[in-house]
Input
Amino acid sequence: MSLRIALAALSVAFSMAAAHAQQPIVIKFSHVVAAETPKGKGALKFKELAEKSTNGRVKVEVYPNSQLYKDGEELQMLQLGSVQMLAPSVSKFGPLGAREFELFDLPYIFDNVDELHNITQGRIGQSLFKKLEGKGILGLAYWDNGFKGMSANKALRLPADFRGQKMRIQSSKVLDSEMRALGATPQVMAFSEVYQALQTGVVDGTENPPSNMYTQKMHEVQKFFTLSDHGVIEYAVVVNKKFWEGLPPDIRAALDAAMKEATRFANDISKQENDEALAKIKASGKTQVITLTADEKKAWKKALLKVHKDHEGSIGKDTIQEIYKETGFDPAKL
Ligand code: LMR
Output
């Protein structure tokens, strides 16, 4: 090869390398809720912070509302590396073989967010993330979305009201037991399909915090929404392990810092977002919001306590006892 051609080939190689070097690292962040929710806003905050702190060397593409992947496929796509970041509800890790995450679904196990944070920010939260590593997934953070209510086209005040109701749930065996303990029939369904299923009567009701009820317009097809606070919607922000560990150390450090700040942001806005969504649900006049009396809530708790015992096998009796200690939960006091 003449020197001239060799030099030409070299300059092409250099310019390609330079172009490649300037191409941003792309993080596809897929989730299933509306942008105007704690998780949706947390994802956009992470995008803002990550792109700013890496001077554009990282580009975060956020895909809300199941636009890219929906329930039931998003975790496999993460393992395949087709998407780099997700924030699924912790109630959706059972099919992956990590049923221990369903400890968060134990009815009435948390009275408030501080008790929840004793778990997410403590030993138990980190030990759950450890269980994902063998599946090619790294857990980065937990994001809150508050306490769930129960909705239906009949008033749900007491467990007896659930009889004959078909209730949509996430893919969690604990939530399956929860609905059966109340006398309802559970039906697992992707979040993106719930509105239409409620509208057409495929299911009679569901459970979610106000921010999800409102942003998916579920309040428009549900006559009643009971503020039961029987469980939480909590998210695990997870990444593809190979991708994350392959990042340049300086980039990974910047993204870790961005995730810490986005987590603080998402958790700080969670309560306000849900309070505002509840106010909008009430103002719509489309659904009657029910507050339980102390006796009614006691009846729910008594009916649901057996779910804890029934899931000692999948969650671990010691883990449940540890959560009782961390949260001050006393079954005898129900
Ligand atoms: C649900 O499927 O009901 C929720 O997990 C959706 C979400 O991500 O908040």
Notes: The first strand starts at residue 25 and ends at 30.
